[in-house]
Amino acid sequence: MVAPRANWKGFIEFGEVSCPVALYTAASSSERIAFNTLNRKTGNRVKREFVDSETGEPVERDDQVKGYEIENGQYIILEPDEVAAAVPDSDKTLKIDAFIPCNEIDDVYFDKPYYLAPDKMGTEAFVLLRDGMKTAKVAAIARTVLFRRVRTVLIRPHGKGLIATTLNFDYEVRSSEDAFEELPDLKIEGEMLELAEHIIGTKKGSFDASSFDDRYEAAVAELVKAKIEGRALPKKKVPPASKPSDLLQALRESAGMGGKKAEPKRTAANANKSTSRQKAAKPAAAKTKSAASSKSAGSVARRAG
Question: Which parts of the sequence are annotated with region: Disordered (predicted)?
Fold first, then answer.
């Protein structure tokens, strides 16, 4: 098995302690099925070409340059050496600014995860940092230059090592208020809420990443295989009948109750009342039984006479 290749190597620094580390990609799309664009008539691959938007003439790579639009159709040109000079120099150091509670950062700021492992020497200092963070139940906020950009990184204990997740900047995260602006204030209660709680209770489980399949990849792989083997192509399944549009009815059917109304929850107060009623009913039941016995005995006596 080939050892993974590090995406970045440097040092992690906390206080006066530092140790060499390496970053490895934790999530990759390299295993996904990839397509090439072909010429339908010849079956040959199509090459991408940049052309001048006005003249329509092809533009060679050496003549391509970055530009920033300041007005409609007006650009300022940024030469490669100017862009390179503006990018901060990397000192290859992950400098920890602070230790924070593990759940303090909203997941919406998470960008891309990397495994952070000790690089050759410095394992003792690495393990000290890992175990210290585990004991204190904290994560670390650090900064460094990654891939020509200054990035903020969240570092957390993960198994035998650490996981470093690059974070989106505040200006990159859109406000949730805009997304939920038109959501009305509704209060759900009574049978609907009880049914929802029941359904959630029956669906409780645990997360297992291996149990989730990439259905798109599997479907495309099957399509490619079928075409190679000359088999009939997979057909799209007919979607199931739509669920009832009535929310309450849909909840009842989801809970396996059909059209029945949900039984009210049996609270302690209701249970006590029910017990009291049962106790009160016992003497009456005994009295009725005694009267019935007397009546029956009288009938027997009359028949005997």
Answer: 235-305
Q: How many angstroms separate the CA atoms of 12 and 20, rounded?
A: 6
Chain-centroid distance of CA 89 in Å reads 34
**Residues sharing a CB contact under 8 Å with residue 252, sequence separation 6 or more, in sequence order:** 195, 258, 259, 260, 261, 262
**Residue 134's domain is classified under what CATH number?**
2.40.290.10
According to DSSP, residue 53 is labeled: T
- The CA distance from 17 to 8, in Å, is 20
- What is the C-alpha to C-alpha distance for residues 305 and 303, in angstroms, rounded to an integer? 5
Q: What kind and span of H or E run contains 104?
A: none
Residue 114 in any domain: the answer is: yes
CA distance 4 to 7: 9
Q: Quick: pLDDT tens for 247-283.
A: 888 888 888 776 566 565 554 445 455 555 554 444 4
